[in-house]
UniProtKB/TrEMBL annotation:
It comes from Lactobacillus helveticus (Lactobacillus suntoryeus). This is Uncharacterized protein. It comes from the Bacteria.
């Protein structure tokens, strides 16, 4: 799985919950600014 530049849409479209969970972890590990504002912009 490519962990660079994970977008919220990737999480929504993940084929299963495990993939979605790992994508969320990677967003956090990449210090993505997970503010409500940025989450809304990224959709």
């Amino acid at each position: 799985m490519n962990n660079k530049g994970v977008k919220l849409r990737d999480i929504y479209e993940a084929s299963n919950q495990k993939d979605a969970f790992y994508l969320m972890l990677n967003m956090a590990n990449n210090n993505a600014a997970l503010t409500i504002d940025n989450i809304l912009k990224s959709q």
